[in-house]
Every structure is written in structure tokens, then in C-alpha cells.
Design brief:
about 300 residues; 15 helices; mainly alpha; Na+/H+ antiporter like fold
Length: about 300
């Protein structure tokens, strides 16, 4: 029943997005405007708050480094796997076999299994994802979507102008200095939290509606999506084993941390990539793949719940 409580709201919002397209309640311009709102305002604020309120230590730094290296490896392997995909989907494969949907999938599944008091175990894994995701990952995704050649210089300058990356950097600085935590302990704390909440509460439903609007369960998409899911499962299974071994010897593993790693790395690619995709074909491919991959996340959760 717990897994239904977690997954059902996600499915409802995705289905609502599909109905919005079917009933013409939204058009592509409206969806693009929603993407712009999320990427330029709401998402940067949410990222800043998450990183500004995180607790940093030496062990966490090592764990973040392990995850960051793993992301670089899995992203690089994604380019090698492109040979197994056909056009026009192969150029998006590296982005769909890498990175993870923490907030909307991994976090609730983990807290359901291990309790909200242990959320920090999985939240620290997401720091590397945020750093990598809103610098290299989203920058290259934008270049790929626009048909541009991957260019390190333009990637660097693009990151400097990306609100989500700016929010990431400022959030880490605020987290290391303890600035926001001190602010929240002051009399101005409730005001800050209210402002943050009103700016970010709608992120999840908006992104899921965009995912649903873009999702297309058509025969020509099912094959490429299933193949992408299979490749991601194989790659992420290897990555999970690598991270578990590295954590054991460099950080010190525990049951809670091991479960966090498995659940986090069994989630689909980040749903927020939808807000960076403008073309209909790429948006439909990514949305359908990520939505179907949720089934894998749920199955992993069920197995862990049974054996745990």
C-alpha cells in the first residue's frame, strides 16, 4: 500500500498531462512557457535551498566525489552505447542512461522504506547529481537539442548563464558557510521558508504534467524506449556494484546507506530534463522512457521491502 501512495500521485499527474494534450487544454506554446518558468525560476530556487541546508563533512565530500566520478563514467559509457540505438534517438541515449530522479521517485520510495528521519542518507547522493546535472549534463543536452557540436568553451559559458547551475553553486557556498541555516534559526526564518515554499511547491506537478503532455505510447516509440530501458538497467546495475564497493572501502557502508544507493540509482533519469527539451520527437522519447522506467524503480523497491 505504501508504494501505491507514492506512485499513484505521480501517475495521476502524468495521465493528467496526457489528457491536457488529448483534450487540447494545453498547446505546445503553453507547455514551453511552463518549461521556461521551471528552468529559470522555480528549479534554481529549489536547488539552492536543498544544497544550502545540506550538512557537509569530510565523509560526505568523499561520497559526493564517488558519485560524481560514477556519473562521469556512466555518461561516457552512454556515448559508447549509442551504436545500439537508431536515429533520431541515439544522440539522446547518453542522457537517458545517466543521472537520476531523486525528488519525485527515489526520495519518497526511500523514506517509505527507511523513514523520513533517514532522508539525509539519500539526499547527499543527490549533491553530485545536481552539480553534474546542471552543468555538464544539461549544457550538453541543450547543445545536442539545438544540433550544435559539443564545445567545451561554449559549455562553460552556457553553464555560467544557466539559472539552475548558478543556484547550485550559490547553494553549496551557502551550505558550506551555514548562512541559510543561521537565517532559518533567526526571526526571519519563517519568512524565508514561506517564500521558498511558495516558489517551489508547484515544481513537481508542473514537471509531471509536462512529462505526461510529451509522452506518446505509439508503436514506433515503444521499441526504442524498451531498448533504452534495457541498456540503462545493465549499465546502472554495474554502476551500483561499483559504488557499493567504493563506499565500503572509502567511506564505510551501512544498511541505510546501501539501500539509499540502490534505490537512488534504480530511479529513472531526471524528469527535469523534459524542461530542457523543445523538439517534439526528443520530448516524447524521453518522457515515455522515463515514465516506463518507473516500473523498474517500483520493482526494485518491492524486492528491497521483501528481503529487507
Amino acid at each position: 500500500m505504501d508504494v501505491l501512495e507514492i506512485v499513484l500521485p505521480v501517475l495521476v499527474m502524468i495521465i493528467l498531462g496526457m489528457l491536457c494534450r488529448k483534450w487540447k487544454l494545453l498547446d505546445q506554446n503553453g507547455v514551453n512557457n511552463m518549461k521556461t518558468l521551471v528552468t529559470n525560476i522555480m528549479l534554481p530556487v529549489a536547488i539552492f535551498h536543498a544544497l544550502a541546508t545540506a550538512k557537509y563533512s569530510g565523509k560526505i565530500g568523499t561520497l559526493v566525489l564517488i558519485m560524481f566520478i560514477m556519473l562521469l563514467i556512466s555518461f561516457g559509457v552512454g556515448f559508447l552505447l549509442k551504436r545500439f540505438m537508431e536515429e533520431p534517438y541515439k544522440k539522446y541515449l547518453p542522457f537517458l542512461v545517466c543521472i537520476y530522479e531523486g525528488g519525485m521517485m527515489a526520495y519518497p520510495l526511500y523514506t517509505s522504506l527507511c523513514g523520513s528521519e533517514n532522508l539525509s542518507q539519500i539526499a547527499v547522493l543527490d549533491i553530485a547529481g545536481l552539480l553534474f546535472g546542471f552543468s555538464v549534463y544539461m549544457g550538453m543536452l541543450g547543445q545536442t537539442e539545438n544540433g550544435e557540436k559539443i564545445n567545451a568553451k561554449s559549455l562553460f559559458y552556457s553553464a555560467l548563464k544557466t539559472p539552475a547551475f548558478i543556484g547550485t553553486v550559490l547553494g553549496i557556498i551557502a551550505g558550506l558557510t551555514g548562512l541559510i541555516n543561521r537565517l532559518m534559526d533567526s526571526s526571519f526564518g519563517p519568512v524565508y521558508l514561506s517564500a521558498e515554499s511558495i516558489l517551489t511547491t508547484a515544481i513537481t506537478p508542473i514537471i509531471l504534467i509536462v512529462v505526461g503532455y510529451s509522452m506518446e505510447l505509439v508503436p514506433e516509440l515503444i521499441g526504442p524506449c524498451i531498448k533504452t530501458i534495457f541498456l540503462r538497467i545493465i549499465l546502472q546495475a554495474a554502476m551500483i556494484m561499483g559504488v557499493l564497493i567504493a563506499v565500503k572501502y572509502l567511506v564505510g557502508s551501512s544498511r541505510l546507506l546501501n539501500l539509499a544507493i540502490i534505490i537512488y540509482m534504480s530511479s529513472p533519469a531526471t524528469f527535469s530534463m523534459q524542461t530542457f527539451l523543445k523538439k517534439k520527437e526528443s520530448s516524447a522519447y524521453a518522457s515515455t522512457t522515463n515514465s516506463l522506467y518507473c516500473i523498474v524503480s517500483i520493482l526494485v523497491y518491492i524486492v528491497l521491502a521483501v528481503v529487507g
